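The protein record now logged underneath.
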Amino acid sequence: MADDKKKKKEKVKTPKEETEKTEPAKKPAKFKFECTRCGACCQNRDSIPITFTDLARWTKQGSFMNVILPHLELRGLSEDDELGKLALVPYIIMEDVDENGKGKCPFYDDENKMCNIYFTIPIFCKTFPLSFNGEKYYTSDPTCEGIGKGDMTKEALIEMRNNAVRDYNERADTTIAMVPLQGLFIRHFMKQSQQTVDRLSDEEKEQLDELIKKSKDESEEPQEDS
């Protein structure tokens, strides 16, 4: 009788519970990507970070740098990044920027749905949408419709991962190098400015002082309400 009562008290396992214990944990889905040429990543995006390697390549291509340079601007990184507070790094600036700070890449041809500088695109674009943060890989834009599509070979995946690591390392090196470079440029231009002032005659110095004083007074004048 005691054995019968014990058997009744034992919990009967459901098929689901049995399956959960016997089946091994599922492996994360393999990363796959195939560009669908939808243009979303080129038309609604933040500014594109540029590295010294990108700049060197474009400079070696001669006049091509003149095409890209008008769209470059130095900007700071995230305010949460201590290094970013000190360094200004080059970016490709977007056009038609909305209230969220996103816009269209100036090199994207929306009529033909293609990049006009595809053969020499920045490393940041080359690795999209796979990114690397120094510890692990991640998708920089999970909404990209090309993720999960196509047949990605082992070799293609390795190449994408290598490009993601390269992008991370090149951007880190560029940011670090920009800190002392900015100091050198500032010191150089201050020295040149001082040399220019030293070459002025006393009369020219007085005229310069008057211009500076006038400019300062005008900037301090209260603005009338319209």
About this structure: The longest helix spans residues 154-198. Residues 40-178 form one domain.
